[in-house]
Amino acid sequence: VSPNKLVYVPGTISTFMASGSFSTFRGTAYSKDGGASWTRIDDVTHLEIDFVNPTTGWSGGFSKANGVGGMYKFSGNLAATLSGTSLSWTEKTNVFTEASRGIAAMHVLNDNVLWAITYNSSNANLASQEFIRTPDGGTTWVNGSISGLPANASMETIHGISALEAFVSVTGDN
Is it the case that residue 124 has pLDDT exceeding 70? Predict the structure, then answer.
């Protein structure tokens, strides 16, 4: 496994989830033995991943050409997974208002609230000043941006503290 992102799954003893978008590893996989062995879940491109417990996790990849999709909600229980138990990701629709978006960073606050920083995947050199959030587990999505930032300022990390507020770190001149 050669992941983009590797996260510990809270509420487990030694379970990790990996996500990747490389030709050597595309998709998601989990390890219940601290990384000694891995079980693949899918081969969809996932850029970012975050879990708050064994049953609540999100992954972000790329939007489709029409601006929908690109966010995935985890289905399953990593604390109780036995051989042959199905684990999967459910793609959410109506997430992005713009086409060619990817997920640069994300934070899952709880079962319902997720915040993520997006970037323009057709031109990764553009500064990332957009975000998405869901207050209700992915039923509805809010697209937004931070006003007043210099043109070259880019959001790097995000940490939600409620369904309406989040902190972001920003890099750039000025």
Answer: no
pLDDT higher than 80, residue 38: yes
| CB neighbourhood size of 108 (10 A) | 23
pLDDT higher at 103 or 82: 103
pTM of the shown model: 0.87
Return the closest-CA partner of residue 158 out of 126, 97, 114: 114
**Residue 43: how many CA atoms within 13 Å on its side-chain side?**
3
46 within 8 A of 29, measured Cβ to Cβ: no
H/E/C letters for each residue in the chain? CCCCEEEECCCCCCCEEEEEECCCCEEEEEECCCCCCCEEEECCCCCEEEEEECCEEEEECECCCCCCCCEEEEECCCCCCCCCCCCEEEEECCCCCCCCEEEEEEEECCCCCEEEEEEECCCCCCCCCEEEEECCCCCCCEEEECCCCCCCCEEEEEEECCCCCEEEEEECCC
Q: Are residues 109 and 115 in contact, defined by beta-carbon separation less than 8 angstroms?
A: yes
